[in-house]
Specification:
The structure holds two protein chains of two kinds.
Chain A: H1 12-33, H2 40-60, H3 65-68, H4 70-87, E1 89-91, E2 94-100, E3 103-105, H5 108-124, H6 133-150, H7 156-161, H8 165-171, H9 176-194, H10 197-214, H11 222-246, H12 249-258, H13 270-280, H14 293-297, H15 308-340, H16 345-369, H17 387-406
Antiparallel strand pairs in A: 1-2, 2-3
Helix pairs in contact in A: 1-2, 1-15, 2-17, 4-5, 4-6, 5-6, 5-16, 5-17, 9-11, 10-11, 13-15, 15-16, 16-17
Chain B: H1 5-27, H2 30-39, E1 40-45, E2 52-53, E3 59-71, H3 81-88, H4 92-105, E4 111-117, H5 119-128, E5 135-145, H6 151-154, E6 156-159, H7 162-167, E7 176-179, H8 181-185, H9 187-191, E8 195-201, E9 207-210, E10 226-228, H10 232-241, E11 247-253, E12 258-265, H11 278-287, H12 297-300, H13 310-319, E13 329-331, E14 334-338, E15 341-344, E16 350-352, H14 354-359, H15 363-375, H16 380-392, H17 415-421, H18 446-457, E17 461-463, E18 468-471, E19 483-485, H19 493-505, E20 520-532, E21 535-549, E22 556-562, H20 572-585, H21 591-599, H22 603-607, H23 614-622
Parallel strand pairs in B: 2-10
Antiparallel strand pairs in B: 1-8, 2-3, 3-4, 3-5, 6-7, 8-9, 10-18, 11-12, 11-22, 13-16, 14-15, 17-19, 20-21, 21-22
The chains are: A mainly alpha, B alpha+beta.
Membrane topology (chain A): Multi-pass membrane protein
GO molecular function (chain A): lipid-linked peptidoglycan transporter activity
Main location (chain A): membrane
Chain lengths: ~400, ~650
């Protein structure tokens, strides 16, 4: 075990995709920074350079370090999140940053990795059975503790990401009805926004009645069906209430744009409209590097951060976008493949978390850019401008690469 | 099962994103345009329009600078409307209406707010233009007419219609385009090619440099000057002679097909269709449906040609060998061509051969020739087609292919025509005998008459009439230098030309001889009717005259039509001889005739036809008449249907 090279057994496929994505990301930031955001490309370059020592530190650490100290890391992350309330720096209404000189650090970007570690650690205990309700509650608590701290910042984007842990828990044995309930809730939520609540309730009744009479005589349970119906009705009505009374106007607007209900292209719809224009004008092969007219004109707001994919779409076209999407999908599937091959439950769960977290960012971000998801602040991993994000994702990924490299030492 | 959930989600989600990308980037192409609207501003550099010269290099049409006030409605800020309106001399209502219109076109694309200000109108505004955000000016050039005639030849310049913008990608809203006359037919030559500059804008609509380093920018190409075949002096003189008359004059150089003069009356000063008054004046001209000043009678008016058509009847007869120059027919002050059918003749009666038949314009003679021609073949329809093809070889009954945008085919009947009129076989030469003397189903335009005379003057060929003499650096279209040969042998023209010459010696134009010039000509008269107070009334005949001169080596062929001018030798004849004298000699010796002709007014004739609508009249009274001839207010209320 001694004199083991740092790079022994590490998965070069993951690293290669990582490097390509970071370089492509920087090129697009460079392009979008030419319009007005002077200095962003240079700063991002420094961030990228700084990931190199970071990666070496992660890889150099002892293979058991992360499992051993998972709880402590999680604790520190929670403290950092908590510390934002008295010490945080407010930017654009969000209290998500620590200011250190001219730099800012966003702890929620690191909290994801910490939560993943903690969850992996908790589940790796061989005694844990997720069929047990107490265990379910404990596992969910690990996930929701950071969410509780992130939501009031307010940073709904980062909080949203944590919902993907359900998928990880499901993989490890969480009963299916959690997901089913979650899925049905989302479906009912969307339906309620599109249709009037009374129609949704009527529809639900119809479905329940059909299921009731289709199922075998012995399985029919009039009490369960009734309760289900009451619950659904209550949910639909509360969604309607929450949407019209609790949501702020800008939240409502974000949904309405998506549903095609509000089309004020200069006000609230501006972002989505401009980002669709930028991507859509790319055509098959795009306008070419540094040739995007929308990018040059700075029409897409936040283009170097959350809307960085518009530059890809405009300057590299459908082909370029397809390559980027393909690289991401390749990375996710590779991580899942490696995770399933892990010998310890800890590294398997952690790997799963990594894939799930990266995937959620990827999907929510690009779906938002393409106008099929409400506007929400979620960065595109490795692409979006920002040191915290880049480092957070790098740490997340490379801890897993380290674990994977170390698996031969496990028994 | 639990293992495949996340990978499946990833693949499904990525596929959805790719589909969405495919829709946005490949299927839906509206984003390209939106993106260009966003980020690219197109600036045009309009080249100066080419000048127009006459055949001798005299300048007819030049340019003057003009200024369009442009507006981008979205960019208007803190506008002092009162001051703005005062500087431009418009009312507030005008202002609001124009802004609303511009907004409808596009709130963020430039549209023309006020077009074609001249230098002095613009001067005051120019000093203050910086104050008016959202407004800027674009320099254009307007036509500057050096002459006050030839409006029908030149055409005019107007803003391009939305219709055409949709059809022709070259034009943008507010661009100018030539309409009618040579401005239309030589639009692409005269206008040149506008230069385009693409400018990259940012989200604040600021210019941040050229788009792709000017890769797509183009430099304006100057419009080319053109020389017309028109003789400026002759054209001017023709228009003067036609004052207070209605009709058309077409003069052609037989050897080349070049149009020397193209007169229509009433006419107007081309300058009234320039600048801010353009559309108002145009509307007025347009609404004058009786005098119809926009109707180019030289090209568009179709009439039964009457006696000049006898020339062709005679030539076809000679060619078909049904007569020779010595064949004679008896004229009994007319011709009883069928039982109970008598066609009158004013030639005096007696034995007529070709020569006398022509110069006395004997109806009976030519009707007999025509009957023989049609009777030559067993099948009447076949004979009609033979005759029809001979006649058509003079360029009649079809579009002639000249380089002016308007025209009429005229009408030369053939067997198909008569099959329609007389279903079955129930007609013979006698049925259609009116064709012999240029009535019946025959219709010609003045330019066709002139072309016919060209072909006669050339003894059997003509060139397609055309108005373009020279385009800077370009040869004119080959079709104008291609000889069209008629189906009549050259030898048959000699006796015909002699007959036409004798029209001046002993015939209907004997009083119109010009000292030192041998003119060949033919009078004509076309009956016409109008419905006046509900009754079909015969009006004074249209006066027609065709001629060419000199007899040997002809330099000018001419056709003249004066509406309601009476017998051919009364008005059209004198005009023809004056025109010929003017062109060949450069001056007029017969000043009495000239004075009489210039002063001759047919306005009381025209008054019978009714005049302008009350609305137009009112507008007319406000300013001086824009027509060169006086408008006569009719005394009786008349509705007209002019029937030739």
């Amino acid at each position: 075990m001694k004199n083991q090279s740092l790079t022994n057994n590490i998965d070069w496929i993951c690293i290669a995709i990582y490097i390509v994505l970071v370089i492509l990301g920087w090129l697009n930031i460079y392009s979008s920074s030419l319009s007005s955001m002077e200095g962003t490309a240079e700063k991002q370059f420094i961030f990228i350079i700084l990931t190199i020592p970071l990666i070496f530190i992660i890889l150099y650490a002892d293979g058991k370090f992360y499992e051993k100290y998972a709880s402590i890391i999680y604790g520190i992350a929670l403290l950092l999140l908590l510390g934002l309330f008295p010490l945080g720096k407010t930017i654009a209404g969000q209290r998500c940053w620590y200011g250190i000189g001219s730099f800012t650090i966003q702890p929620s970007e690191f909290a994801k990795a910490a939560t993943a570690l903690a969850l992996a650690k908790y589940l790796s205990d061989s005694q844990i059975n997720l069929k047990d309700v107490n265990r379910q509650i404990q596992a969910l608590a690990i996930v929701f503790l950071p969410v509780m701290l992130i939501l009031p910042q307010p940073d709904p984007g980062s909080a949203l990401i944590y919902s993907i842990f359900f998928i990880v828990l499901f993989r490890e044995g969480l009963p299916a009805w959690y997901l089913l309930t979650g899925f049905c809730s989302i479906l009912l939520f969307v339906l309620t926004l599109i249709l009037e609540p009374q129609y949704v309730i009527l529809l639900a009744l119809l479905v329940i009645v059909i299921i009731y009479f289709k199922s075998r005589l012995g399985d029919r349970n009039i009490v369960f069906s009734s309760i289900l119906f009451v619950l659904i009705s209550g949910f639909v009505l509360s969604v309607n209430y929450v949407f019209t009374h609790v949501f702020k106007q800008h939240h409502r607007d974000r949904f309405n744009i998506l549903l095609g209900k509000s089309v004020d292209m200069k006000g609230i719809g501006y972002n989505t409209n401009q980002s669709e224009i930028a991507v859509g004008s790319g055509g098959w092969i795009g306008k070419g590097f540094l040739e995007g007219t929308q990018t040059k004109g700075g029409f897409v707001p936040e283009q170097h951060t959350d809307y960085i994919f518009t530059t890809v779409g405009e300057e590299w076209g459908f082909i370029g976008s397809l390559i980027v999407v393909g690289l991401f999908v390749g990375l996710f599937l590779r991580i899942i493949y490696l995770a399933e091959r892990q010998k310890t439950k800890f590294s398997r769960v952690y790997g799963y978390c990594v894939a799930a977290i990266l995937f959620t960012h990827f999907f929510v971000n690009i779906a938002m850019v393409l106008g099929v998801f409400p506007t929400i602040g979620v960065p595109l991993p490795f692409f979006s401008y920002g040191g915290s994000g880049l480092w957070g994702f790098t740490i997340l990924l490379f801890i897993f690469i380290k674990m994977d490299a170390n698996k031969v030492n496990e028994w | 099962m639990r293992k495949v959930l996340l990978p499946s989600m990833i693949i499904i989600a990525a596929s959805l994103l790719v589909l969405r990308l495919f829709y946005l980037q490949v299927i839906n192409d509206s984003f390209k345009l939106k993106s260009d609207n966003n980020a690219i501003k197109i600036q045009y550099d309009y080249p100066e329009r080419g000048y127009i010269y006459d055949r001798n290099g005299k300048l007819l049409v030049a340019n003057q600078p003009s200024y369009d006030i442009m507006v981008i409605p979205r960019d208007i800020k803190n506008l002092d409307t009162l001051e703005f309106c005062q500087l431009l001399a418009i009312s507030k209502e005008d202002f609001l209406e124009k802004i609303a219109k511009a907004k409808v076109y596009s709130p963020r694309l430039p549209s023309v707010f006020l077009a074609q200000l001249n230098k002095s109108e613009f001067a005051a505004f120019q000093e203050k233009i910086r104050k008016f955000e959202g407004f800027y000016f674009q320099k254009r050039s307007l036509r500057d007419y050096q002459v006050n005639f030839g409006a029908n030849i030149f055409g005019f310049i107007t803003q391009v219609s939305e219709n055409l913008i949709a059809k022709n990608p070259y034009y943008n809203s507010g661009d100018l385009i030539g309409k009618q006359g040579v401005e239309e037919s030589y639009e692409e030559v005269l206008r040149g090619i506008k230069g385009v500059k693409y400018i990259q804008k940012d989200k604040y609509n600021r210019e941040i440099g050229s788009f792709k380093e000017g890769k797509y920018d183009t430099i304006a190409v100057q419009g080319e000057d053109i020389n017309l075949t028109i003789d400026m002096e002759l054209q001017k003189y023709g228009e003067e002679l036609m004052i207070n008359k209605r009709g058309g004059i077409v003069a052609i150089e037989p050897k080349t097909g070049e149009i020397l003069a193209l007169v229509t009356a009433p006419n107007y000063d081309p300058a009234i269709l320039v600048g801010r008054q353009r559309s108002k004046n145009y509307t007025m001209l347009y609404r004058d449906s009786i005098a119809n000043p926009l109707f180019d009678r030289g090209l568009l008016a179709q009439y039964p040609p009457g006696s000049p058509f006898k020339i062709l009847t005679g030539l076809v007869g000679l060619q078909e060998n049904v007569i020779d120059t010595h064949s004679t027919f008896m004229c009994n002050h007319g011709f009883a061509y069928a039982p109970g059918r008598f066609q009158r003749c004013h030639c005096g009666g007696g034995s007529r051969d070709l020569n006398v038949g022509i110069y006395k314009s004997c109806n009976a003679y030519f009707s007999n020739v025509y009957l023989r021609t049609i009777g030559k073949y067993k099948s009447t329809p076949y004979a009609v087609d033979v005759w029809s093809n001979h006649v058509k070889s003079f360029g009649l009954g079809q579009f002639m292919g000249y380089d002016l945008p308007t025209g009429k085919k005229g009408k030369i009947p053939n067997s198909k025509t008569y099959k329609r009129i007389y279903p079955g076989w129930g007609y013979s030469g006698k049925t259609i005998i009116s064709n012999a003397i240029g009535q019946g189903e025959v219709l010609l335009t003045p330019i066709q008459l002139a072309n016919m005379m060209s072909a006669v003057a050339n003894e059997g060929y003509y060139y397609t009439p055309h108005i373009i003499k020279k385009i800077e650096g370009e040869k004119i279209d080959k079709k104008f230098t291609t000889k069209h040969v008629t189906t009549i042998d050259k030898s048959h023209f000699k006796p015909m030309i002699q007959g036409l010459f004798d029209v001046y010696n002993f015939g209907t134009a004997a009083g119109l001889r010009v000292e030192g010039i041998d003119i060949c000509g033919k009078t004509g008269t076309a009956e016409n009717f109008a419905k006046i107070n509900g009754k079909r009334t015969q009006l004074e005949d249209h006066s027609i005259f065709v001629a060419f001169a000199p007899k040997d080596n002809p330099k000018i062929a001419i056709a003249i039509l004066v509406e309601n001018g009476g017998f051919g030798s009364v008005i059209a004849g004198p005009i023809a001889s004056l025109m010929i004298e003017k062109y060949l000699k450069g001056k007029i010796t017969r000043t009495d005739l000239e004075k009489r002709t210039l002063e001759r007014s047919l306005q009381d004739q025209y008054a019978k036809l009714g005049g302008l609508s009350e609305v137009v009249k009112k507008e007319m009274r406000k300013k001086d008449s824009i027509l060169k001839s006086k408008i006569v207010v009719p005394k009786v209320k008349i509705d007209t249907t002019k029937k030739p």
